[in-house]
Amino acid sequence: MGNARTALYNWLFARHTGGAFLLRIEDTDLDRSELRHETQLMEDLLWLGLDWDEGPGVEGPHAPYRQSERLGIYREHTDRLLAEGKAYRCFCTAEELEGERRVAAAAHKPQVYSGRCRNIAATDSAARAARGEPFAVRLRIPDHPLRFHDLVRGTVEFPNETVSDPILVRSTGMPVYNYVVTLDDALMEITHVIRGDDHISNTPKQVAIYEAFGWKPPEFAHLSMILGSDRERLSKRHGATSVASFRAMGILPEALVNYLALLGWGAEGGTREIFSLEELVGEFRIERVTASPAVFDWEKLHWLNRHYLKAADPERVAELAWSHFAGAGLLPPHDGKWQVTTAAVEAWFGKLLALFLPAVNQLDELPVKAALVFRFSPTAARASEENAAILATETSQKVLATFSARVAAHAGPVAPEQFRTWMNEIRAETGASGKDLFHPVRIALTGAHSGPEFDKFIPVVEEGSRLDLPVHVLSIRERIEQFMSSGK
After folding, report:
1. Pairing state of beta strands 136-139 and 87-90?
2. Are both 160 and 189 inside the same structural domain?
3. Quick one: 334 and 475 in the same domain?
4. pLDDT at position 338, please?
5. Cβ(227)–Cβ(234) under 8 Å?
6. What CA–CA distance (Å, rounded) separates 17 from 286?
7. Of the candidates 281, 475, 463, 278, which has an alpha carbon nearest to the alpha carbon of residue 376?
8. Could you identify which of 1, 25, 118, 204 might form a hypothetical disulfide with 66, taking C-beta atoms 3.0 to 4.6 angstroms apart as the criterion?
């Protein structure tokens, strides 16, 4: 979620100011870089509606956009820093560096590199490298504080002694993150870097790299972290945290984008909360981003998702919802397009959604909500203590017996109008009304004493019972027959 919000804010800022949004694949960490992650990232961005002006698939003047294809560029710049004495070779072993760290920790001092290789003569350094002695390349941090302007936090300053001389290139020859992103940002003419506040400690190192090359640093904006309800950093223990998981749950992209925008930003006036992506572009100001952490609120996300589900094109919602029913084994799978076996099934499914969609927060809740249409168990209904107490009364037994007799005498499917007529007649015959009248009938037809309106429920089950579906939908007649038989 943090990465998605960062991408959104960058995209909104670029679109609002008429700038360009670049997508760069940072894959120099070979252990963590996999093609599936790259593919997922791009799919997520496009699903959210965040297109890029330059990047993979959209070539531009700053190509290539994959760092593993820019290694020659990094080597050239490293050679320049070494030649100018702004970087130096470090021959310290991992054991020596760990020893330094332990000594500093024991003395309660900053655990920074001592600089022991800083003063090796350039000729000696080159000779040792020529002999094959392993080395890393470090940047010489200047003897002055490192400061930068943050669009969210104002002026930020780090004493140079707390930064130490950072590694630019590992002994393996692979450049490190802070180095390559700084080079890429400069060479790709990046003017604004909007990212999470976990990168603040990286920024002084990057500012020092800019200074070493004589480049002007970009504007930075560090976004506060997103917290869970317990005010700890949002993680998997708080539930879904990836864009793909929200998509699988049936959160619409417009709802997620709207919600992400509000996690740390608010429009002028602070009272409006519903924005389309186009409206966000018009309203977004980086100056209105807060430095305070944002708390992820499921209730607000669900509120927004319900709003967008209601406003969405019914055919689109049906297409998205179908896969959830197919995954639950209630409907046949299809190829991802809104193509079903017959027009009758399509019309029926629309009625099913109209009945249950207002009662869900996300689309994957639909099969559970609609289970009473597909799976009806008289035994389970009677096993409920609350239901049993209702059914045990003499009034309930009279109501059910009278209702059952009317269904048995009726030819064909039951219509809502017929059902209303019967209930009025049963009220007059038994003297039952309100809950005493409707609760036993609802239990007999749905398995619970509360549920959807009969006027909408009855057509869904009656029409569904005549369709060729993987799970047979019981008609009103079949339901009352099975229920009455289960009580004998």
Report:
1. antiparallel
2. yes
3. no
4. 46
5. yes
6. 11
7. 475
8. 25
Distance, CA of 473 to CA of 445 (rounded, Å)? 12
In this prediction, the residues of the chain whose per-residue pLDDT falls under 70 are 235-240, 335-341
Query: Which residue, 356, 437, 447, is CA-closest to 402?
Result: 437
- Whether residue 310 lies in the annotated active site: no
DSSP one-letter string for 118-185:
TTS-HHHHHHHHHTT---EEEE---SS-EEEEETTTEEEEE-GGGT---EEE-TTSPBPHHHHHHHHH
Q: Which helix (H) or strand (E) holds 294?
A: strand 294-295
Q: How many domains does the chain have?
A: 3
Residues 327 and 208 in one domain: no
253 CB contacts (<8 Å, ≥6 apart)? 47, 48, 49, 247
Q: Which amino acid is at 145?
A: P
Last residue of a domain, one of 223, 239, 270: 223
Tell me if 158 sits within 8 A of 147, measured CB to CB: yes
3-state secondary structure of 377: coil
Q: Is 54 left (phi over 0), alpha (psi -120 to 50) or beta?
A: beta
Length of the chain, please?
Answer: 488
Give the pLDDT of residue 42: 95
**Marked catalytic residue, from 86, 205, 216, 236:** 236
In the block, residue with structure tokens 């002028």 = 268
Q: How far apart are CA 398 and CA 401, in angstroms?
A: 5
Instruction: Report the DSSP pairing between strands 192-196 and 219-223.
Output: parallel
Could you tell me if 322 and 422 lie in one domain?
no
3-state SS of 202-215? Answer: HHHHHHHHHHHHCC
> Crossing angle for the helix pair 35-48 and 2-17, nearest 10 degrees?
50
pLDDT attached to residue 239: 62
Give me the pLDDT at residue 446, please. 96
CB burial of 156-165 (b: ≥16 within 10 Å; e: otherwise) equals: bebeeeebbb
